[in-house]
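User: Please run a holo structure prediction.
Assistant: Happy to. Please share the sequence and the ligand.
User: Here you go; the ligand is glycine.
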Amino acid sequence: MNVLIIGSGGREHAMVKKTAESPRVKELYCAPGNPGMAGVCTCVDIKQDDIEGLARFAKAQAIDLTIVGPELPLTLGIVDVFKEKGLLIFGPDRRASILEGSKIFTKEFSKKYSIPTAAFETFDDAARAVAFLDSLKKYPVVIKADGLASGKGVIIAKDHDEAVSAVRDMMIDKNFGTAGQKILIEDYINGHEASFIVVSDGKHFSEFSSSQDHKRLLDNDLGPNTGGMGAFAPATLVTPRLREKIINTIIRPTLTGMEKEGRPYTGFLYAGVMVDEGGEPLLLEYNCRLGDPEAEVILPLLKSDFIDFVMHSLDGTLKQYQPAFHEGSAVCVVLASQGYPAAYQTGFEISGLDSVTDPDCFVFHAGTATRNGRYITNGGRVLTVTARGDDLCAAVKRVYQNTEKIYWQGVHYRRDIAQKGLNVSA
Ligand code: GLY
């Protein structure tokens, strides 16, 4: 098969690596891809939101299967356009990807289908939102922009002033563009987050290993929110009992609900789950793609052929399919530029990549470029180092042994990735 993967981050590098391992794949392309993928696939200079350009390329190169990495092309309707042109593509169509495209849709859908989630109110008028905040007795509170906001549209406001300022930011100053025209204000839930990612064929699903992301910049979950500074899988927090609950109260009702709504869901479905202090799972949000950096731990744990997995979803045969997984755990550490997630400089030469030779360790590129045949930094999140191990402790040890070999001026990474998983299992 000729396969095209869309996207350019660490998640897509992990998808490219796993796809390249499939004996079913003849030619492999990534658009736009990144320099770390060279040698494994051909990178094509077409942007992820140039849907017509991507479709023209897929036709011209006789692409048999396209797999979409990021949410933007999905919410723009790439699946609908490719299907109209007779091109096979993996991901939810525009009507189904609303689960990520509109937080208000997902909250109202959750209420309709009794999916546990935090109590919420919706607003399309700033004055009404502020009046509601004036009447609130309990803080913190969570303010969410309705639409896609590049992962920045969720603010945890610790008091009334912070909440009013978030509402102003979104609705009056329009700092999130159209995404902040409507907002949600929801109860803050104390607990721990887990990522539960499945592949759905519209009726049935098959799950990846559960995982946990580390969203804050600094150790001990301090500092600003980022796109994710590291992850581990499986999530120690997700016990067999909790897994059953997530499946029965969140995943199954979502898939049947979406079918009833005339929005059958095919593709990766990523439930962000909050496990509250009583151990009960609540749906925080849905993403219609693999998580980043979660993909960099769950794909290396998948033993089965990734393309088989995807094709079972597209053929509607997931009910009969049981993917195999490696025993043990995987941990990844994101290496970022100094200053990220605020302003940062790029163009620093990266050293030490050649010293990572451990067969159970992988380096995925995200924000890199090349200069005179050498890799340089070219983004906020630059690289992700992943290691597998017989258990979480071994994976942590291996990932840091290898991360420490990589250097550039100002490199920053957390030293405590997966520590929360070790603490749970202790
Ligand atoms: N890990 C968070 C995300 O992919 O949205």
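Residues 151, 213, 228, 287, 291-292, 294 surround glycine (CB under 6 Å).
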